[in-house]
Known about the structure:
Elements: H1 4-37, H2 44-49, E1 54-57, H3 62-69, E2 77-80, H4 83-92, E3 97-101, H5 102-111, E4 115-118, E5 128-133, H6 134-140
Parallel strand pairs: 1-2, 1-3
Antiparallel strand pairs: 3-5, 4-5
Helix pairs in contact: 4-5
Amino acid sequence: MVSSLGRLVLSIWLFVVLIVTSSYTTNLSSILTVQQLSSPIQGIDSLILTNERIGFQVGSFAENYMMEELNIPRSRLMALCSPQEYAEKLRAGIVAAIVDERPYIDLSLAENCGFQVVGEEFTKSSWGFVSISLHILLLLV
Protein backbone atom coordinates (compact mmCIF):
# COMPACT_ATOMS: atom_id res chain seq x y z
CA MET A 1 0.00 0.00 0.00
CA VAL A 2 1.39 3.38 -1.08
CA SER A 3 0.41 6.41 0.97
CA SER A 4 -0.34 9.84 -0.37
CA LEU A 5 2.73 11.18 1.41
CA GLY A 6 4.91 8.60 -0.38
CA ARG A 7 3.53 9.65 -3.75
CA LEU A 8 4.18 13.30 -2.97
CA VAL A 9 7.79 12.59 -1.94
CA LEU A 10 8.33 10.49 -5.07
CA SER A 11 6.89 13.23 -7.30
CA ILE A 12 9.11 15.88 -5.72
CA TRP A 13 12.15 13.62 -6.00
CA LEU A 14 11.50 12.93 -9.71
CA PHE A 15 11.07 16.65 -10.36
CA VAL A 16 14.39 17.43 -8.61
CA VAL A 17 16.17 14.70 -10.63
CA LEU A 18 14.70 16.15 -13.84
CA ILE A 19 15.94 19.66 -12.97
CA VAL A 20 19.44 18.42 -12.02
CA THR A 21 19.72 16.38 -15.22
CA SER A 22 18.60 19.29 -17.38
CA SER A 23 21.01 21.64 -15.65
CA TYR A 24 23.92 19.23 -16.13
CA THR A 25 23.13 18.75 -19.83
CA THR A 26 22.85 22.51 -20.39
CA ASN A 27 26.12 23.26 -18.62
CA LEU A 28 27.96 20.51 -20.47
CA SER A 29 26.82 21.71 -23.89
CA SER A 30 27.65 25.29 -22.94
CA ILE A 31 31.17 24.35 -21.86
CA LEU A 32 31.77 22.45 -25.08
CA THR A 33 30.58 25.24 -27.40
CA VAL A 34 31.43 28.54 -25.75
CA GLN A 35 35.14 28.28 -26.62
CA GLN A 36 34.28 27.82 -30.28
CA LEU A 37 32.08 30.91 -30.34
CA SER A 38 34.56 33.42 -28.98
CA SER A 39 36.56 35.44 -31.46
CA PRO A 40 39.07 38.26 -31.14
CA ILE A 41 37.87 39.53 -34.54
CA GLN A 42 34.36 40.94 -34.36
CA GLY A 43 34.22 42.53 -37.82
CA ILE A 44 36.20 44.53 -40.31
CA ASP A 45 37.20 47.21 -37.78
CA SER A 46 38.82 44.77 -35.38
CA LEU A 47 40.41 42.93 -38.32
CA ILE A 48 42.04 46.17 -39.50
CA LEU A 49 43.56 46.71 -36.04
CA THR A 50 45.34 43.36 -36.07
CA ASN A 51 48.55 42.59 -37.94
CA GLU A 52 47.15 39.33 -39.32
CA ARG A 53 47.11 38.55 -43.03
CA ILE A 54 43.79 38.82 -44.85
CA GLY A 55 42.79 36.69 -47.83
CA PHE A 56 40.73 37.79 -50.82
CA GLN A 57 39.73 36.25 -54.14
CA VAL A 58 41.99 36.94 -57.12
CA GLY A 59 40.38 39.54 -59.35
CA SER A 60 37.89 40.68 -56.72
CA PHE A 61 37.20 44.32 -55.95
CA ALA A 62 38.07 43.48 -52.34
CA GLU A 63 41.79 44.05 -52.87
CA ASN A 64 41.42 47.66 -54.04
CA TYR A 65 38.66 48.29 -51.53
CA MET A 66 40.80 47.16 -48.61
CA MET A 67 43.88 49.06 -49.78
CA GLU A 68 42.20 52.31 -50.87
CA GLU A 69 39.14 52.61 -48.64
CA LEU A 70 40.28 50.78 -45.51
CA ASN A 71 44.02 51.65 -45.76
CA ILE A 72 45.20 48.09 -45.22
CA PRO A 73 48.79 47.66 -46.50
CA ARG A 74 49.22 45.37 -49.53
CA SER A 75 51.74 43.32 -47.53
CA ARG A 76 48.89 42.09 -45.29
CA LEU A 77 46.74 40.96 -48.21
CA MET A 78 46.95 37.53 -49.84
CA ALA A 79 45.29 36.65 -53.15
CA LEU A 80 43.52 33.27 -53.11
CA CYS A 81 42.08 31.38 -56.06
CA SER A 82 39.20 29.29 -54.73
CA PRO A 83 37.02 28.46 -51.73
CA GLN A 84 39.15 25.34 -51.25
CA GLU A 85 42.22 27.53 -50.95
CA TYR A 86 40.34 29.72 -48.45
CA ALA A 87 39.90 26.70 -46.19
CA GLU A 88 43.51 25.56 -46.61
CA LYS A 89 44.97 28.96 -45.73
CA LEU A 90 42.62 29.50 -42.78
CA ARG A 91 43.32 26.06 -41.31
CA ALA A 92 47.08 26.49 -41.78
CA GLY A 93 46.95 29.86 -40.03
CA ILE A 94 48.41 31.67 -43.03
CA VAL A 95 45.46 34.09 -43.11
CA ALA A 96 43.26 35.09 -40.19
CA ALA A 97 40.25 35.98 -42.33
CA ILE A 98 38.85 36.08 -45.83
CA VAL A 99 37.13 39.18 -47.20
CA ASP A 100 35.06 38.37 -50.25
CA GLU A 101 31.70 38.68 -51.97
CA ARG A 102 28.76 36.94 -50.32
CA PRO A 103 28.21 34.19 -52.94
CA TYR A 104 31.82 33.01 -52.65
CA ILE A 105 31.68 33.07 -48.86
CA ASP A 106 28.43 31.05 -48.95
CA LEU A 107 30.05 28.52 -51.30
CA SER A 108 33.05 28.19 -49.01
CA LEU A 109 30.82 27.74 -45.94
CA ALA A 110 28.74 25.09 -47.74
CA GLU A 111 31.86 23.06 -48.52
CA ASN A 112 33.76 23.61 -45.28
CA CYS A 113 32.15 23.53 -41.88
CA GLY A 114 34.15 24.95 -39.00
CA PHE A 115 34.07 28.50 -40.32
CA GLN A 116 31.82 31.39 -39.48
CA VAL A 117 30.88 34.79 -40.85
CA VAL A 118 31.50 37.62 -38.37
CA GLY A 119 30.75 41.30 -38.43
CA GLU A 120 28.31 43.15 -40.61
CA GLU A 121 28.26 43.85 -44.31
CA PHE A 122 30.55 46.77 -44.99
CA THR A 123 30.14 47.82 -48.60
CA LYS A 124 27.44 49.82 -50.34
CA SER A 125 26.06 46.89 -52.31
CA SER A 126 26.04 44.51 -49.33
CA TRP A 127 28.61 42.11 -50.74
CA GLY A 128 31.55 42.35 -48.36
CA PHE A 129 31.91 39.83 -45.55
CA VAL A 130 34.61 38.58 -43.28
CA SER A 131 34.88 34.84 -42.88
CA ILE A 132 36.87 33.43 -40.02
CA SER A 133 37.91 29.91 -39.16
CA LEU A 134 36.87 28.69 -35.75
CA HIS A 135 39.97 26.51 -35.69
CA ILE A 136 42.21 29.50 -36.27
CA LEU A 137 40.40 31.52 -33.64
CA LEU A 138 41.10 28.86 -31.06
CA LEU A 139 44.80 29.13 -31.86
CA LEU A 140 44.76 32.93 -31.62
CA VAL A 141 42.95 33.09 -28.27
